[in-house]
Amino acid sequence: MIILIFILLNIKVQPADQADCKGNKATFSVTSEGGVGKIHYLWKRKRPTDAVFASFGAADSIKLAVYNIGVGNESPDSTLYQVSVSDDETEITSSAAHLTVNQITGIAPIGVASYTLNQGENLWLKIQTSGNSPSGFQWIRKSGPSNWQDVTDGISISGSQDAQLNFTKISVADSGIYKIRVTFPTINGNLCTETSTITRRIFVTPVPDTEPPIFANLNNDIKLLCPDDLVLAGWNDSIGAILPEEKNSCLFHKSDTLFDLSPVNFSDNVTPSDSLVLHWGIFSDDILHLPLTDTAGALLDDRTGQISGHPENINFEGRAALNQSWQIIFWLEDAAGNQTPESLRHKITVRLTHRPEIVNSF
User: Fold this and answer.
1) Would the N or C end of the chain have less CB density within 10 A of its end CB?
2) DSSP assignment string, 284-316
């Protein structure tokens, strides 16, 4: 006599609750035991707006993959999933598993959709969120048809990784389309990222530079040239130095701090200092703004460049009497053609304390 013992169909492991980021895939599974004949599986779901469970997904599988969770209405947050397990004799239904879509339910930029500003004005963009609390922000800017690049802090931008993006003295280069990417923690310890679908457009209109450039950190001063010890004088030791017409020449010392006209000493209000042109001339102090000449006879009334790198041989043409004085005058010109006003130009008064003589043997 043969006795057959059948183990009743039973669900050994129930489907477990799942939580993941919006757009990801969630997988539910079930483990059964016992049963008579072939075991069949039928998965069902009940969305928050559904009255009852309805069949969903592939049949006869111990696993159910749910794609693009939280996207559209197919697999929203708080949807329930269960599975019916059946054999030749019995059908049983699992407990319901809960789907949690970790998401920020709202990323809402504050303000209007488009801003038009003049160059140099200030602006801020800010967002509010609901749902999970954000753990990080990153503002992004459109740089092509579908190419978005991270915004970084710079001269006019701050807060690129905060809820508020700040533009201080905004520039034309800051024009563009902006939106934000938000990172937030999930209930299962992962991090999710969601990008706002709402953008903000900024138009920046250039403003002509009408402010004249000025010097900063430079004071007008008097410089003594050719004293008795000749410490501040440079001499031409060539044979030509003994000629009478060369006896009244002195050489600027390019290392002198009075000639330090590096960009750190320039101020141009709007235009960056590297776009400035430095003008300088050498003029008689007793005859108002009479330009002097160099030893080649060229007028020293308006030259450009860094004076600290260009020492000049100056021919006093017989005017090198004791206490003779003259001026080196510097002024600036910006990209718009504005020049330093006469009253704000940097002037160094150079005074001879000793008529140059031929010294030393050669």
Assistant:
1) N
2) ETTTTTEE-EETT--B-SSEES-GGG---EEE-
Same domain for 111 and 34: no
pLDDT tens column, 35-62? 888 999 999 999 999 999 999 987 789 9
Q: Report the residue count for the chain.
A: 362
Instruction: Answer whether residue 185 is part of any domain.
Output: yes
Backbone angles phi, psi at 209, to 5 degrees: -80, 110
CA distance 43 to 53: 9
Phi, psi (deg, nearest 5) at residue 344: -110, 10
CATH of the domain at 69: 2.60.40.10
What is the full DSSP assignment across 30-76?
-EEE--SS--EEEEEEE-TT-SS-EE-S-SS-SEEEE-STTSTTTS-
Residue type at position 181? R
Rounded Cα distance, 199 and 267, in Å = 37
**pLDDT single digits (tens) 315-343:** 554 444 445 677 778 888 877 788 888 88
Report if residue 346 sits inside a domain.
Answer: yes
